[in-house]
Amino acid sequence: MTIERSNPEGLHATPGYHHVTRVQADTMVFLAGQCPLQPSGELAPGGLEGQTAQVITNILTALKAVGATPDQIVRTVIYVASSERDDLSTVWTQLNESALGPAFTTASTLLGVAQLGFPGQLVEVDVTAAL
Q1: Which Pfam families match (predicted)?
Q2: What's the CATH class of domain 2-7+21-130?
């Protein structure tokens, strides 16, 4: 498996992610959007920070189940239920500073959205990995 990440000349500089991720792999893994739900099915406490921490835990658990690591993630889409740029930055920073951090050097999209699927849900991350 090979993963090549690049920022082609002529595109703007990024805050850590790459514009292009080229993958040659035997197996692709697509995670359902990981929500801030605890194993009990209840929403994680602690507001945006607590929910983001739970999403990180859930992604790491799902990756481990298929023998994948954060550096094998080739695409992420991050959804934050907020129109406040500071909230998006808070989530981006927390994700990058976590054990999941290597995942966000790849092709990534960060979106502020009106609402997510569960009442009170503030964050969700969609992940694709290559093995």
Answers
A1: Ribonuc_L-PSP
A2: alpha beta
